[in-house]
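Q: Protein A?
A:
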Amino acid sequence: MLEALLWGAIASSSLVLGAGLAMARRWSDAVVGIVLAFGAGALIAGVAFELAEAGVAEGGALAVGIGLAAGALAYFFADRAVEARSGRRGSGAAGAAGMPLAVGALLDGVPEQAVLGIGLATGDGVSVALLVAVFVSNLPESVGASADMLGAGRSRRFVLLLWLGVGAICTLASVGGRAIAEVAPPALTGVVDGFAAGALLVMLVDAMIPEARAKARDLAGLATVVGFAVAAGLSLLS
């Protein structure tokens, strides 16, 4: 459990790091977009090599298919709920820039890090490719969200505590993933892998890739390929 806690903390630490970077200086949209695109490419590799492939090998295609559908629907409806709440409270209000953004980070952070714990429980060790993908993808999300909250009037203390809380929950998800994998049948492990893959794919297409393209413009595609190549190479080496 301590090992899962350690790796989970490392993966989620980029959320707090991103908040710190947002407080330290203003980052251009182009830089955030390039990092966002790199993270998207890394996550695509993680979905392909670390979630779908590993899930099928562990629990079978049917289990992964069920997880894919459940994860995609869960992210879709949860994201719609976050958007609805933000809209009701006003997009320019300080309140609207708080919890909805934190919930959005949780939607993809929890299943990602649960999979890290599952890998430890199955004896495969931590997935370096997925760890890098999670760490890198968290950074621009946290930087952008923190900048929005600070611009909306939230205090630095509030922003820091918010991301510390999100990071702590994501870290505990790694421990929870390990605990589930130790007592669950292989089919359930495949469902969890599929759930994370489904949630990530919807998040990538609905939010991460469009934002990367809008901010980095023509460089987004190249940065995505670099991110994919790095994560895929790490997956093959690990």
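Q: Protein B?
A:
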Amino acid sequence: MTNPVRLLVHGANGRMGQSLQRLCRDEDTGCTVVAAVSRKVGARVVDGIPQFAASELAGVPAFDVAVDFSLPEGFDAILGLCLARGAALVSGTTGLSAAQETDFADAATHIPLAWASNYSLGVAVLHDLVERAARVLPGWDCDIVESHHARKRDAPSGTALTLGASAGQGGATPHYASIRAGDIVGEHLVQFTAAGERIELVHRATNRDIFARGALHVAARLKGRDAGRYRVADLL
């Protein structure tokens, strides 16, 4: 790689954190992990990546972009570090408080930021299609059906709610249904219905790596951008 983007992975022991590290090691992502941060640390170096505990965050080496898939209680620290270092932040941490949302918006006046409930590039395109369909089909019923594995607790999913927000921006009023079954990675159906006809817009995920690849795609394109809040669709 020529001048790869230097990544800090925050929430390194989670499913997404592990996928990010593996993909940067095994694929040409344009990114290299310079440090991994988790709440607790065992080995100090894993597969050549220095490991840091959350309490040691201030001591991580220089990085271009932090990719954060952690918990709300760790969000303030990584946002503060990115501000202090002038680095970009890509976050998929959910459950942020109103105060944290405000801090995130304020930080966008200083550094480039991205937040998404789903980093699939296909879902980013689906958002655009849903908004466009809602805008040109006033008065049609809008229903969103999402399916996930049986262990997923939240319903509707965060992705379904953000798709609903896209529909709302186009003037539709979405309704939601949730299915929890087996090992479904993630399926989202947005349906527009009128008398005698129906349009279905569907995204199906069959491999969880798509979410990590999407986050790396965004991180590689966020480096060097002007301060601001970016959507995945802005960086396709």
